[in-house]
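Practice problem: predict the structure.
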Amino acid sequence: MRCVHTFDLDISVPLAEEAFRTFLRETSSGRDRLLSLFAEEPSPGRFLLHALAGGAAPGRFVHACAEVSPRSFRTFTDVCPGAHWFEREIYDLFGLAPEGHPELNPLRFHEGWPRSFFPLRSEGAPPPEPRRGYRFLLVQGEGIHEVAVGPVHAGIIEPGHFRFSCAGETVQNLEIRLGYQHKGIESLFPGDPGMGKILLSESISGDTAVGHSTTCTRLLEAVTGKPADRSAERWRAAALEIERISNHCGDLGGLSTDIGYLFGAAHFGRLRGAALNLLLKITGNRFGRGLNRIGGVGPRVPGIAPEDLMAELGRLRTEVESVGTTMLDAPSVIARMEGTGRLLPHTAKTLQFVGMVARASGRDVDARRDFPSPAYVEAPPAKVLLDAGDVMARARVRFLEMRASFDWLSGILAGGITAGAPVAEGGVPVAGRRLVVSIEEGWRGEIVHAAVVDAGGRITRYKVVDPSFRNWPGLSFAVRKNVISDFPVCNKSFNLSYSGTDL
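Answer:
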């Protein structure tokens, strides 16, 4: 399966730090891209860094690891800017300081957490120095002032702090501070690879329950040697596309609200509800919880006949097409969103952003093509790629992706998705110490789950990368040189998850 890969750690030789640096440099400048970077403590006081890359060819995964000292390692951000937040996370969780890092502020923890708390570091390892407090970047110059927003906001949304440095109303810098929803979810995954892990994955980011649970389930299937059959994989992909449609409708409605376009705000909110109701009919839950089981899908899947689902999707598509075309052709919408919040293609490539944010800035990355699951091997989705990088481009990418999702769903349903997906038998459980990686294209972008598994088949380290974790720095670049009143529409055009980032 091209979306899942297993590496044998028993024969993997850790690289010297300089060779590991070369690997990351080549990942940053070549056709492969960085998928994940994380630390592991296989025995007390011994620390490994794991880097996962790939994407140069369909199903291509590359792994490298390096052993580092219990205290610190030389930062890799200077040769691989996409490693920036990964290194901050490694320091927060393990106390391994990336020396020379350009901005070593806490990422996972706010002031309420003890500075000597490194939750994934064993008691047998020598204690590191307490982490420093958070230091905001000080922008200096005549007329520069700061505007602080959050972490508690006026709306019913997740918590996060935004610190704007402005000259008049023009934003010179935006610093984003997160971590207020850190719940230690990665520390709950180690142990037996059972059904409880799937339930846990559904809570990583509530609006991406299908994406995270599907990614997690495929990983567990590789560990246990219980693959799903073709019908189950088709239902998983169908649910992923409906999750994409529902969230894109919600985002276009949110953008409409932020610019005062009431027609779009009213209709897209209603259409999002209609898409969520389709997930309810398939899985028994409006957010798609209960879709996945190891080796197949849940007992309620599908709760709707394929021909009935096809008819309802057809009606939904007609309305989405009408409302979306009207919105994106409206002069008031074009005037407000074109040229606002531009993220340059060079920035998107250098910092290795993912998902629709990347595709709106000319970066052609899509895990459905680069790491296709069986259903996407059968029927690859249409490519959607724009390069303007502004709010309008991100809105258009959403609309075009919904159109592509409807096309894909029509094809897979017309071809016979097969109602009732029995659990498939077969496969070989993972043996020996292994690193298993699973990837899927969620509606925001690529989701990466990786697990280190011991010789007994138990998970000893689990790493989650939500696409929001990769894309938050992009919001800072997008709002620069815009007036501060443009921030809400810029922010909504990214619509990133706090929970998925804070873990």
